[in-house]
Amino acid sequence: MNNCSFTKNELHSFGLNWKDMSKGERIQILHTIFETYKRDTPFSTVEKVVSGFIDQYVGFPEICTLFFKCSEFQKHGAVFFGRPLRYLASHLEKMCLDSNKKEQFLLLVYMSFNDMKIDISKSDQRLRKIYESCGLNNIDFKSLLPPEEFVLKENSSVYVLQHEIIKRMSLITFGKFYFSEMLKFSSRKDLLGWIKHTKKTPFASLSKGVKEASEMEPVLEINDEPWFEYLKKVESVAKPTIEINCKDEIPPKILTSETCT
After folding, report:
1. pLDDT tens profile 16-42
2. Are 194 and 252 spatial neighbours (Cβ–Cβ below 8 Å)?
3. How many angstroms separate the CA atoms of 112 and 109, rounded?
4. CA 226/CA 184 separation, integer angstroms
5. Which of 4, 126, 130, 157 has its CA at 20 to 30 Å from residue 210's CA atom?
6. Which of 25, 34, 22 lies closest to 5 in space, CA to CA?
7. Which burial class, exposed, middle or buried, applies to 231 when counting CB atoms under 10 A from its CB (0-12, 13-18, 19+)?
8. Residue 54 pLDDT more than 70?
9. CB 105 within 8 A of CB 95
10. Which of these, 164, 172, 166, 167, lies nearest to 221 by C-alpha position?
11. Spatial separation of the C-alpha atoms in residues 245 and 225, rounded to whole Å
């Protein structure tokens, strides 16, 4: 087991789905990531997930990485692997609503709008405007760092979101609480494929009952008023030959490292 054939960089360079691997390969990947991030969780307590994980919207290696890089997820043990997007969404929601963590959450949002990157050595008016639009002024941007559990360090000053799913779920959370601001700072390409019209009451809180809930789709459901606001945004920057209507929906897909920008 200690002679694993996968390195940390290799695991982020391609996508692996649970159904395409043997149990031994899944254990190997799980153990490689476990050794890389060296958390306090005993390996024996999570090893059993390799036989019960179900691919839905994100691949197995990234779920393992999320688990071992974030101590909050480790508190839930193997249950996390059954509904990782629920737990990720709940965690991001708490960051967004926590005055002490909101600054870091908005860095994830900025990175999601900025090709999944941030250079902390450079000042950026767009970043400042995002903070101001959410009621945060007089921020010392030089002291801000993105949350390490969701990023990879490219060099001394550049951080990159470790996976497309972090971008998607950060924007979904931002849209729940700051929908108009989300539209304001996004481009058309940022918005397509993950916003869905619904007649149900949208924006339900995920902070309670995550363990009992089924896995969620990586989409933001909105009702009539924000939906028309969304359509106005995408139509205003679309080519005249492109038609958008309320029935146009792009189904979510498994997000592997191959879909990362």
Report:
1. 444 555 656 666 666 666 666 555 555
2. yes
3. 5
4. 13
5. 130
6. 25
7. middle
8. no
9. yes
10. 172
11. 14
- Report how far residue 32's alpha carbon sits from residue 141's, in angstroms, rounded to the nearest whole number: 35
Quote the tokens at residue 163: 């996976």
pTM over 0.85: no
Average pLDDT over residues 39-47: 56
- Dist. CA 222–CA 195, nearest whole Å: 7
* 182-239: pLDDT as tens digits: 999 998 888 888 999 887 765 554 444 555 567 888 899 998 889 999 998 888 755 4
Q: So what's the pLDDT on residue 171?
A: 95
> What stretches of the chain show up as alpha helix (H) in DSSP?
8-11, 23-37, 60-69, 71-74, 84-97, 102-113, 125-133, 164-177, 179-185, 188-191, 224-236
Structure tokens at 248: 């146009």
Tell me the residue type at 210.
V
**What are residue 58's phi and psi, to 5 degrees?**
-155, 150
- Contacts of 180 by beta carbon, 8 Å cutoff, 6+ apart: 229
Q: Where are the domains of the chain?
A: 8-82, 90-259
Structure tokens at 178: 């700051």
